[in-house]
Write a structure and sequence with these properties.
The strands form three sheets. Strands 9, 10, 11, 12, 13, 14, 15, 16 and 17 form a nine-stranded antiparallel sheet that branches. The chain contains 14 helices and 17 strands. Strand 1, helix 2 and strand 2 form a beta-alpha-beta unit. The chain is an alpha+beta fold. The N and C termini lie far apart (about 50 Å). It has three domains: about 90 residues, Rossmann fold (3-Layer(aba) Sandwich); about 70 residues, Dna Ligase, domain 1, CATH 3.30.1490; about 180 residues, ATP-grasp fold, B domain (D-amino Acid Aminotransferase, Chain A, domain 1).
Length: about 400
Protein backbone atom coordinates (compact mmCIF):
# COMPACT_ATOMS: atom_id res chain seq x y z
CA UNK A 1 0.00 0.00 0.00
CA UNK A 2 1.35 3.43 -0.99
CA UNK A 3 2.34 5.74 1.82
CA UNK A 4 -0.06 8.70 1.75
CA UNK A 5 2.80 11.05 2.62
CA UNK A 6 5.18 9.80 -0.08
CA UNK A 7 4.29 12.62 -2.47
CA UNK A 8 3.36 15.58 -0.25
CA UNK A 9 3.74 18.29 -2.90
CA UNK A 10 0.81 16.95 -4.89
CA UNK A 11 -1.51 17.44 -1.92
CA UNK A 12 -0.90 21.20 -1.80
CA UNK A 13 -1.17 21.84 -5.54
CA UNK A 14 -4.41 22.82 -7.18
CA UNK A 15 -3.32 25.02 -10.13
CA UNK A 16 -0.48 24.48 -12.60
CA UNK A 17 0.92 27.53 -14.36
CA UNK A 18 2.11 26.78 -17.90
CA UNK A 19 4.38 29.12 -19.85
CA UNK A 20 2.86 29.09 -23.32
CA UNK A 21 -0.64 28.39 -24.57
CA UNK A 22 -0.25 26.39 -27.77
CA UNK A 23 -1.46 22.89 -28.51
CA UNK A 24 1.07 21.35 -26.11
CA UNK A 25 -0.36 23.45 -23.29
CA UNK A 26 -3.86 22.42 -24.37
CA UNK A 27 -2.99 18.71 -24.23
CA UNK A 28 -1.22 19.13 -20.89
CA UNK A 29 -4.40 20.69 -19.50
CA UNK A 30 -6.45 17.81 -20.92
CA UNK A 31 -4.19 15.39 -19.04
CA UNK A 32 -4.27 17.42 -15.82
CA UNK A 33 -8.05 17.57 -15.43
CA UNK A 34 -8.67 13.86 -14.69
CA UNK A 35 -5.91 14.00 -12.05
CA UNK A 36 -7.71 16.84 -10.27
CA UNK A 37 -5.61 19.81 -11.40
CA UNK A 38 -6.48 22.84 -13.45
CA UNK A 39 -4.09 24.86 -15.59
CA UNK A 40 -3.59 28.54 -16.35
CA UNK A 41 -1.37 29.92 -19.11
CA UNK A 42 1.08 32.75 -19.77
CA UNK A 43 0.51 33.62 -23.41
CA UNK A 44 0.06 36.82 -25.42
CA UNK A 45 -2.48 35.28 -27.82
CA UNK A 46 -5.78 35.37 -25.91
CA UNK A 47 -7.57 32.84 -28.16
CA UNK A 48 -4.72 30.33 -28.14
CA UNK A 49 -5.58 26.58 -28.16
CA UNK A 50 -5.02 26.30 -24.40
CA UNK A 51 -7.61 29.02 -23.70
CA UNK A 52 -10.26 26.30 -24.06
CA UNK A 53 -9.04 24.83 -20.76
CA UNK A 54 -8.01 27.71 -18.51
CA UNK A 55 -7.41 31.40 -17.98
CA UNK A 56 -4.79 33.07 -20.17
CA UNK A 57 -2.54 35.77 -18.71
CA UNK A 58 -0.49 38.08 -20.94
CA UNK A 59 3.23 38.51 -20.30
CA UNK A 60 2.37 41.92 -18.85
CA UNK A 61 0.47 40.02 -16.15
CA UNK A 62 3.38 37.79 -15.13
CA UNK A 63 3.15 38.57 -11.42
CA UNK A 64 -0.61 37.89 -11.40
CA UNK A 65 0.03 34.62 -13.22
CA UNK A 66 2.60 33.61 -10.60
CA UNK A 67 0.23 34.47 -7.76
CA UNK A 68 -2.55 32.36 -9.27
CA UNK A 69 -0.60 29.09 -9.62
CA UNK A 70 1.01 26.65 -7.17
CA UNK A 71 3.65 25.10 -9.47
CA UNK A 72 5.01 25.96 -12.91
CA UNK A 73 6.09 24.34 -16.16
CA UNK A 74 6.39 25.25 -19.85
CA UNK A 75 5.32 24.07 -23.27
CA UNK A 76 7.66 26.24 -25.38
CA UNK A 77 11.44 26.04 -24.99
CA UNK A 78 12.05 29.50 -26.45
CA UNK A 79 10.46 31.11 -23.39
CA UNK A 80 12.98 33.79 -22.32
CA UNK A 81 15.34 32.52 -19.61
CA UNK A 82 14.92 35.87 -17.85
CA UNK A 83 11.18 35.24 -17.51
CA UNK A 84 11.79 31.81 -15.99
CA UNK A 85 14.43 33.19 -13.61
CA UNK A 86 12.02 35.93 -12.47
CA UNK A 87 9.23 33.39 -12.07
CA UNK A 88 11.51 31.06 -10.09
CA UNK A 89 12.59 33.90 -7.78
CA UNK A 90 9.05 35.07 -7.09
CA UNK A 91 7.70 31.54 -6.70
CA UNK A 92 10.41 30.75 -4.14
CA UNK A 93 9.54 33.91 -2.22
CA UNK A 94 5.84 33.07 -2.43
CA UNK A 95 6.12 29.53 -1.07
CA UNK A 96 5.28 27.94 -4.43
CA UNK A 97 6.27 24.40 -5.37
CA UNK A 98 8.83 25.36 -8.02
CA UNK A 99 9.50 25.45 -11.76
CA UNK A 100 9.88 22.20 -13.70
CA UNK A 101 11.99 21.68 -15.73
CA UNK A 102 14.70 23.86 -14.13
CA UNK A 103 16.05 26.97 -15.83
CA UNK A 104 19.43 25.34 -16.59
CA UNK A 105 17.73 22.85 -18.92
CA UNK A 106 16.06 25.71 -20.76
CA UNK A 107 19.36 27.60 -21.10
CA UNK A 108 21.05 24.57 -22.67
CA UNK A 109 18.18 23.78 -25.04
CA UNK A 110 18.08 27.38 -26.29
CA UNK A 111 21.73 27.37 -27.41
CA UNK A 112 22.80 24.71 -29.91
CA UNK A 113 26.48 25.30 -29.18
CA UNK A 114 25.99 24.77 -25.43
CA UNK A 115 23.78 21.80 -26.19
CA UNK A 116 26.32 20.04 -28.43
CA UNK A 117 29.12 20.84 -25.97
CA UNK A 118 27.10 19.26 -23.14
CA UNK A 119 26.45 16.15 -25.21
CA UNK A 120 30.18 15.74 -25.80
CA UNK A 121 31.00 16.47 -22.14
CA UNK A 122 28.69 13.59 -21.18
CA UNK A 123 30.17 11.26 -23.84
CA UNK A 124 27.05 11.39 -25.98
CA UNK A 125 28.08 11.22 -29.63
CA UNK A 126 27.18 14.06 -32.04
CA UNK A 127 28.12 15.21 -35.52
CA UNK A 128 31.33 17.30 -35.59
CA UNK A 129 30.62 21.02 -35.14
CA UNK A 130 32.26 24.45 -34.91
CA UNK A 131 31.18 27.91 -33.77
CA UNK A 132 31.05 30.49 -36.58
CA UNK A 133 31.15 34.24 -35.91
CA UNK A 134 32.33 35.61 -39.27
CA UNK A 135 32.43 34.76 -42.96
CA UNK A 136 36.13 33.87 -42.62
CA UNK A 137 35.26 31.42 -39.82
CA UNK A 138 32.59 29.93 -42.08
CA UNK A 139 35.24 29.39 -44.76
CA UNK A 140 37.47 27.71 -42.15
CA UNK A 141 34.56 25.51 -41.03
CA UNK A 142 34.00 24.39 -44.63
CA UNK A 143 37.66 23.43 -44.85
CA UNK A 144 37.73 21.62 -41.48
CA UNK A 145 34.36 19.88 -41.56
CA UNK A 146 34.13 19.34 -45.28
CA UNK A 147 31.19 19.88 -47.60
CA UNK A 148 28.29 19.62 -47.55
CA UNK A 149 27.69 21.12 -44.10
CA UNK A 150 24.69 22.58 -42.30
CA UNK A 151 24.89 26.14 -40.97
CA UNK A 152 22.36 26.99 -38.25
CA UNK A 153 21.56 29.78 -35.87
CA UNK A 154 22.70 28.66 -32.43
CA UNK A 155 19.70 30.36 -30.86
CA UNK A 156 16.14 30.69 -32.08
CA UNK A 157 14.74 29.00 -35.15
CA UNK A 158 12.38 26.01 -35.13
CA UNK A 159 10.69 23.62 -37.58
CA UNK A 160 13.58 23.93 -40.02
CA UNK A 161 13.90 27.72 -39.88
CA UNK A 162 17.31 29.32 -39.36
CA UNK A 163 19.25 26.71 -41.38
CA UNK A 164 21.28 26.70 -44.60
CA UNK A 165 22.87 23.67 -46.29
CA UNK A 166 26.15 24.54 -48.01
CA UNK A 167 26.94 22.13 -50.85
CA UNK A 168 29.97 23.96 -52.25
CA UNK A 169 32.19 26.93 -51.38
CA UNK A 170 30.13 28.99 -53.83
CA UNK A 171 27.32 28.85 -51.25
CA UNK A 172 29.32 30.68 -48.56
CA UNK A 173 28.21 34.19 -49.57
CA UNK A 174 24.54 33.20 -49.80
CA UNK A 175 24.66 31.34 -46.48
CA UNK A 176 26.27 34.29 -44.71
CA UNK A 177 23.78 36.71 -46.29
CA UNK A 178 20.92 34.51 -45.06
CA UNK A 179 22.11 33.80 -41.49
CA UNK A 180 25.01 36.14 -40.72
CA UNK A 181 22.61 38.68 -39.25
CA UNK A 182 22.13 36.34 -36.30
CA UNK A 183 25.71 37.12 -35.26
CA UNK A 184 25.22 40.89 -35.48
CA UNK A 185 21.63 40.99 -34.25
CA UNK A 186 20.12 41.82 -37.65
CA UNK A 187 18.15 38.57 -37.99
CA UNK A 188 14.64 38.39 -36.56
CA UNK A 189 14.86 34.62 -36.03
CA UNK A 190 17.09 35.04 -33.00
CA UNK A 191 16.33 36.77 -29.68
CA UNK A 192 19.93 37.89 -29.06
CA UNK A 193 23.09 38.10 -31.20
CA UNK A 194 25.02 34.82 -31.00
CA UNK A 195 27.50 32.79 -33.06
CA UNK A 196 26.24 30.38 -35.67
CA UNK A 197 26.94 26.65 -35.51
CA UNK A 198 28.38 24.72 -38.45
CA UNK A 199 27.66 21.00 -38.34
CA UNK A 200 29.40 18.35 -40.39
CA UNK A 201 27.06 16.61 -42.80
CA UNK A 202 26.53 12.99 -41.81
CA UNK A 203 24.83 10.44 -44.03
CA UNK A 204 22.15 8.88 -41.85
CA UNK A 205 19.55 6.26 -42.59
CA UNK A 206 16.72 7.74 -40.53
CA UNK A 207 15.78 10.08 -37.72
CA UNK A 208 14.52 8.71 -34.42
CA UNK A 209 13.70 10.18 -31.03
CA UNK A 210 13.29 8.99 -27.49
CA UNK A 211 11.05 10.57 -24.87
CA UNK A 212 11.53 10.05 -21.15
CA UNK A 213 10.04 11.35 -17.93
CA UNK A 214 11.96 12.05 -14.73
CA UNK A 215 10.15 12.34 -11.40
CA UNK A 216 11.11 14.57 -8.49
CA UNK A 217 12.66 11.56 -6.73
CA UNK A 218 14.94 10.89 -9.73
CA UNK A 219 12.99 7.96 -11.16
CA UNK A 220 13.25 7.81 -14.97
CA UNK A 221 10.83 6.04 -17.31
CA UNK A 222 11.48 5.91 -21.06
CA UNK A 223 9.16 5.44 -24.01
CA UNK A 224 10.09 3.38 -27.08
CA UNK A 225 12.28 4.80 -29.80
CA UNK A 226 10.12 6.20 -32.60
CA UNK A 227 10.95 6.99 -36.22
CA UNK A 228 10.24 10.47 -37.57
CA UNK A 229 9.77 11.83 -41.09
CA UNK A 230 9.92 15.56 -41.81
CA UNK A 231 8.78 17.98 -44.49
CA UNK A 232 10.95 21.10 -44.74
CA UNK A 233 12.00 20.63 -41.12
CA UNK A 234 8.42 20.11 -39.89
CA UNK A 235 7.47 16.74 -38.44
CA UNK A 236 5.01 15.04 -40.76
CA UNK A 237 4.86 11.45 -39.47
CA UNK A 238 5.98 9.39 -36.47
CA UNK A 239 5.95 5.60 -36.29
CA UNK A 240 5.83 4.11 -32.80
CA UNK A 241 7.79 2.05 -32.11
CA UNK A 242 10.54 2.49 -34.69
CA UNK A 243 10.81 -0.74 -36.65
CA UNK A 244 14.09 -2.62 -36.26
CA UNK A 245 15.53 -0.21 -33.68
CA UNK A 246 15.50 -2.35 -30.52
CA UNK A 247 19.30 -2.69 -30.64
CA UNK A 248 19.60 1.11 -30.32
CA UNK A 249 17.19 1.53 -27.42
CA UNK A 250 19.64 0.90 -24.56
CA UNK A 251 22.07 3.54 -25.87
CA UNK A 252 19.26 6.06 -26.31
CA UNK A 253 17.92 5.36 -22.82
CA UNK A 254 21.37 5.80 -21.31
CA UNK A 255 21.90 9.10 -23.16
CA UNK A 256 18.62 10.71 -22.11
CA UNK A 257 18.89 9.41 -18.54
CA UNK A 258 22.41 10.86 -18.26
CA UNK A 259 21.25 14.23 -19.56
CA UNK A 260 18.28 14.38 -17.19
CA UNK A 261 20.39 13.49 -14.16
CA UNK A 262 23.05 16.08 -15.08
CA UNK A 263 20.44 18.82 -15.45
CA UNK A 264 18.50 17.76 -12.33
CA UNK A 265 15.57 17.52 -14.69
CA UNK A 266 11.93 17.01 -13.73
CA UNK A 267 9.27 16.36 -16.36
CA UNK A 268 9.23 15.05 -19.92
CA UNK A 269 12.22 15.49 -22.23
CA UNK A 270 12.71 14.47 -25.86
CA UNK A 271 16.08 13.63 -27.42
CA UNK A 272 16.24 13.72 -31.22
CA UNK A 273 18.77 11.37 -32.82
CA UNK A 274 20.24 10.41 -36.19
CA UNK A 275 20.83 6.74 -37.01
CA UNK A 276 24.16 6.37 -38.80
CA UNK A 277 26.93 3.79 -39.17
CA UNK A 278 30.33 3.75 -37.49
CA UNK A 279 33.62 2.88 -39.18
CA UNK A 280 32.86 -0.83 -38.74
CA UNK A 281 29.49 -0.54 -40.46
CA UNK A 282 27.56 -0.96 -37.22
CA UNK A 283 24.45 1.16 -36.67
CA UNK A 284 24.87 3.87 -34.07
CA UNK A 285 23.00 6.99 -32.93
CA UNK A 286 24.12 10.61 -32.89
CA UNK A 287 22.39 13.17 -30.66
CA UNK A 288 20.90 16.13 -32.50
CA UNK A 289 19.01 18.16 -29.90
CA UNK A 290 16.84 18.02 -26.81
CA UNK A 291 13.41 19.48 -26.22
CA UNK A 292 12.79 20.32 -22.53
CA UNK A 293 9.06 19.68 -22.79
CA UNK A 294 6.46 17.33 -24.16
CA UNK A 295 7.22 16.69 -27.82
CA UNK A 296 5.43 16.30 -31.14
CA UNK A 297 6.96 12.86 -31.68
CA UNK A 298 5.24 11.67 -28.49
CA UNK A 299 1.66 12.56 -29.41
CA UNK A 300 1.00 8.91 -30.30
CA UNK A 301 1.29 8.12 -26.58
CA UNK A 302 -2.14 9.61 -25.82
CA UNK A 303 -3.75 6.46 -27.20
CA UNK A 304 -0.72 4.25 -27.85
CA UNK A 305 0.99 4.08 -24.44
CA UNK A 306 -0.21 2.99 -21.01
CA UNK A 307 0.45 6.54 -19.75
CA UNK A 308 0.75 9.45 -22.20
CA UNK A 309 3.70 11.83 -22.21
CA UNK A 310 1.28 14.58 -21.18
CA UNK A 311 -0.01 12.75 -18.12
CA UNK A 312 3.51 11.78 -17.08
CA UNK A 313 4.67 15.38 -17.37
CA UNK A 314 1.83 16.53 -15.14
CA UNK A 315 2.61 13.72 -12.68
CA UNK A 316 6.25 14.77 -12.49
CA UNK A 317 5.47 18.48 -12.08
CA UNK A 318 3.05 17.96 -9.19
CA UNK A 319 5.21 15.33 -7.47
CA UNK A 320 3.27 12.17 -8.29
CA UNK A 321 4.88 8.85 -9.31
CA UNK A 322 5.34 8.32 -13.04
CA UNK A 323 3.08 5.94 -14.97
CA UNK A 324 3.92 2.98 -17.17
CA UNK A 325 5.42 4.06 -20.52
CA UNK A 326 4.94 0.77 -22.37
CA UNK A 327 3.58 0.86 -25.90
CA UNK A 328 0.17 -0.85 -25.84
CA UNK A 329 -0.35 -0.82 -29.60
CA UNK A 330 1.92 0.02 -32.57
CA UNK A 331 0.75 3.25 -34.15
CA UNK A 332 1.46 6.00 -36.65
CA UNK A 333 0.96 9.67 -35.81
CA UNK A 334 0.33 12.11 -38.66
CA UNK A 335 0.49 15.87 -38.25
CA UNK A 336 -2.34 17.79 -39.91
CA UNK A 337 -0.51 20.58 -41.71
CA UNK A 338 -2.16 23.68 -43.12
CA UNK A 339 -5.64 22.38 -43.94
CA UNK A 340 -8.12 20.26 -42.00
CA UNK A 341 -9.38 17.03 -43.56
CA UNK A 342 -13.01 15.98 -43.55
CA UNK A 343 -13.47 14.58 -40.05
CA UNK A 344 -16.06 12.00 -41.10
CA UNK A 345 -13.80 10.61 -43.85
CA UNK A 346 -10.95 10.40 -41.36
CA UNK A 347 -12.91 8.65 -38.63
CA UNK A 348 -14.37 6.17 -41.13
CA UNK A 349 -10.96 4.44 -41.04
CA UNK A 350 -10.85 1.94 -38.17
CA UNK A 351 -8.41 2.81 -35.42
CA UNK A 352 -8.23 6.53 -36.20
CA UNK A 353 -8.01 9.10 -33.38
CA UNK A 354 -8.49 12.73 -34.43
CA UNK A 355 -7.13 15.72 -32.50
CA UNK A 356 -7.90 19.30 -33.57
CA UNK A 357 -5.85 22.18 -32.15
CA UNK A 358 -8.61 24.71 -32.94
CA UNK A 359 -6.22 26.81 -35.02
CA UNK A 360 -6.89 28.72 -38.23
CA UNK A 361 -5.64 27.09 -41.40
CA UNK A 362 -2.30 28.36 -42.74
CA UNK A 363 0.26 26.79 -45.05
CA UNK A 364 2.44 24.19 -43.24
CA UNK A 365 1.02 25.16 -39.84
CA UNK A 366 0.48 22.34 -37.34
CA UNK A 367 -3.28 22.50 -36.74
CA UNK A 368 -3.95 19.00 -35.47
CA UNK A 369 -2.78 15.40 -35.48
CA UNK A 370 -4.18 11.96 -36.18
CA UNK A 371 -3.06 8.76 -34.48
CA UNK A 372 -3.73 5.59 -36.40
CA UNK A 373 -4.08 2.33 -34.44
CA UNK A 374 -6.08 -0.29 -36.39
CA UNK A 375 -7.26 -3.24 -34.26
CA UNK A 376 -4.98 -5.60 -36.21
CA UNK A 377 -1.43 -4.24 -36.49
CA UNK A 378 -1.08 -6.12 -39.78
CA UNK A 379 -3.56 -3.59 -41.22
CA UNK A 380 -1.46 -0.54 -40.27
CA UNK A 381 0.06 0.08 -43.72
CA UNK A 382 -3.30 -0.42 -45.43
CA UNK A 383 -5.01 1.96 -43.00
CA UNK A 384 -2.24 4.53 -43.43
CA UNK A 385 -2.69 4.46 -47.21
CA UNK A 386 -6.41 4.99 -46.74
CA UNK A 387 -5.79 7.89 -44.37
CA UNK A 388 -3.33 9.63 -46.69
CA UNK A 389 -5.94 9.55 -49.46
CA UNK A 390 -8.38 11.66 -47.43
CA UNK A 391 -5.80 14.21 -46.26
CA UNK A 392 -5.76 17.47 -48.27
CA UNK A 393 -2.06 17.99 -47.48
CA UNK A 394 0.01 14.87 -48.11
CA UNK A 395 3.51 16.39 -47.88
CA UNK A 396 6.07 14.30 -46.06
CA UNK A 397 3.84 11.20 -46.09
CA UNK A 398 5.42 9.40 -49.03
CA UNK A 399 7.85 7.42 -46.82
Amino acid sequence: MTNANAYPASQSIRTIGILGGGQLGMMLAEAALPLGYRCIFLEDTPDCPASLYGKVYSTQQLDDFISAADVFTLEFENTPVETVEHLTKLSNEGNKQGMFPPVQALAVAQDRLKEKALFNELDIATVPFLAVSSKDELKDACAQLGLPLVLKTSRGGYDGKGQFVLKSTSDIDAAWADLGGAVTGDNDLVPHPAPLIAEGFIHFSREVSIIAGRAQDGTVRCYDLVENHHHHGILAKTQAPAVGASHLLATAKDAISTLMAHLDYVGIMALELFVSKDDDGKETILANEIAPRVHNSGHWSIEGAVTSQFENHIRAVVGLPLGDTDNVHPSVMINILGQYPNVADTLAIDGTHYHSYHKEERADRKIGHITLMPPDVADLDKALSALVKVLPNKVGLDK
